[in-house]
Amino acid sequence: MAVQSWIDDLKSSQKTALIHDGKRKIHYLFTDGKEMAEEYDLKTDELICRKWRQKSALGVQGVWQVEVGEPVNMPTALDPDVIKENCSNPLFMRKDTKSSFQWRIRNLPYPKDVFSVSVEPSERCIIIKTTNKKYYKKFNVPDLDRNKLPLSASALSYTHANNTLIVSYQKPKEILTLEQELLKEVKKLKGTGEGDVDCKTH
After folding, report:
1. Judging by DSSP bridges, how do beta strands 100-106 and 23-29 pair with one another?
2. What is the largest CA-CA distance in the chain?
3. Nearest 10 degrees: CA dihedral of 89, 92, 95, 101?
4. Which three-class secondary structure state does DSSP give residue 50?
5. Residuewise pLDDT in 10s, the chain (202 residues)
6. Residue 179's CB: how many other CB atoms inside 10 A?
7. Is the pTM of the predicted complex or chain greater than 0.85?
8. Coil, helix or strand for 153?
9. Rounded CA gap, 97 and 42, in Å?
10. DSSP 17
11. Are strands 156-161 and 164-170 parallel, antiparallel or unpaired?
């Protein structure tokens, strides 16, 4: 079963834990050389961030790709023009809850009835469209892909408030069980508390 296969991959990976700044940070190094880094809130056990990186064919370390949490390339104060442009552009990010995968798209100042959110099972993705043709986004749910679980339209819902579209996808029971099992594994790790260290691979 694919879910079991992913659990086995997680269990067989090399893991390093660090407790810092109210967060439990876990670094995974998989047998294929891929790395995954996760951050959990120490109080709530909620996943704050998950990112991935892998080496290129030439062995060069790739950049971190954020799957859950704030995007790495958030606007900086270095270039005022960039800030102006990005402040009004839609900003897409994923921030899960205990029971749902959740995506937030900020800077979408349209009424809720303009939006259409649907599942495309053949492409294994979710599609957001607007009737005014101002926004279009197609994205997959990596957790479902990794575990080879189907996408279900009935699990999808969305709401709109404060210029932000919030798309939720109810986690299937297989994912909820997997997350509980992973959290147990993570809590067994002996975390160090000596500042923020960058996990290096050798």
Report:
1. unpaired
2. 52
3. 140
4. strand
5. 567 788 888 888 999 999 988 999 999 999 888 999 999 999 999 999 999 998 887 878 889 999 999 876 555 445 555 444 456 889 999 999 999 999 999 999 999 999 999 999 889 999 999 999 999 999 999 999 999 999 999 999 999 999 999 999 999 999 999 999 888 888 888 776 654 444 444 4
6. 16
7. no
8. helix
9. 15
10. E
11. antiparallel
